[in-house]
Each structure stands twice: as C-alpha cells, then as structure tokens.
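User: Structure please.
Assistant: Input sequence and predicted structure:
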Amino acid sequence: MSETTIPMLPCRTSLIDSVVTFYAALGFTTTYMQKSPYAYAVVERGAAELQLYGMKEYDPASSHSGCYVLTEDVDSLHTAFRAGLKAAYGRVPTRGLPRIGPLKDMSYGVRQFLVTDPTGNTIRIGQPISDDQNHRPAPKETFARALHMADLFADSKQDLPGAAKIIDRVLGLTDEEPTPVQKLRLLVLRGDIAQRMGEAERAAELLEEAEGIRLDPEQQDSAADALARLAELRG
C-alpha cells in the first residue's frame, strides 16, 4: 500500500488570487481553482501538493498554519525560491507577508528555511544533514545556548519578542564574551528579528555592528550562512 499526505491550509477568501500568485513565483502550478461556492485552490510542484481553502474572516497576522516539506537539495531550492520571488515582487521579501527566511542548520539535524505566504501559512523546507532528527539538548555554554534557544523561539515558536529578549540578555553580559562568530550570529539574528518587528533603526544599528566584526578565513567559513544573511539584510 502507498499513502500520500496532502496539507490543507486556510486562506483568507479575499487573498486567494494573491496566494496562488505567490506559489506560482515559487514554481508551483495551479492545478485547480474555484471562487464559488467557496474559494479553493490546489498548487503543485513536483511531488509537493498544497490545497488552500477560503475563510472570509481568517486573519493572516495570527496564522499558525503550515507544513514541512523535505527535499534533497535545500540550498538549490532556497536559491530558486528567492529568484522567483524577486522576479514576481521586484525584491526578495524578508519580513511581513509574504516573506522568505534564511537557510539555517537546526539543532535537530536538518538544514532548513521558512517561507510564509500572503495569508500567513508557513512552509518549512528542510534537508536532513544528520541521521538523528531528534532535538538535541540545549548547549550549556552561554552564547551557544542563547543562539540555540533564540533560533527555536524565532523560527519554530514564531515568538520574536521572546527571541529578542534572549539575545539582548546575553549581549548585555559583562562577565562573559562570545567568540567573534557567536557575536556575529547573535547580532545578525537580532537584526533580522528587529526588521521583522518593524524596528528599522534598531535593526540598522545591530547590523552595522555585525558588519564591523573581523573574521579570519576559517571563521568566515564557519559563519557563511550568517554572513550571507547579513549581506541580504544590509542590501
């Protein structure tokens, strides 16, 4: 026997056209679309299929809906999605709705990024990078632990104020110092969060500080994802 799971995601009825357009920018084909007696659409990209159903009173800002898509080449998919969104919107949307997030190696052995459609559904796109996909215990070292927890709060829990509080606390410590790579990652993540929370001036300060950190070639390799995100946020 062979079974297939197809996510059914809510969509504000008035946004059904913009949601379908968004998925088209990601390379999805619309295989079904209706407006009456209720809004409903089906989009497909390869083996991935999403079904979207309309709700008149649905609030995108408070949405917690989404699904997880596994791929064998998450870096290429991230590049393709960014290119498609830039072509469709004239820029790569990194905050608000819709948006696409950065690539990250997560604590549970997956390299992933998040993409959120105009009606608030978050699709997590991931590639296993370890045979063990269980959550690892949080690191004990102060700054590694802060990065671990802030990532989980920002991406998995979608709690931006909580993630910001974690980072602000450790950046304010006077009796411990992060490594240059840790400080860069903390500042970039905090700047990213500030942008997503609409705090443009604070974000600019954080990212400028991150840009001033000097790394040797080995450290640059270790911080490649954070450096790429910094360049994107500063661009």
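The mean pLDDT is 92.
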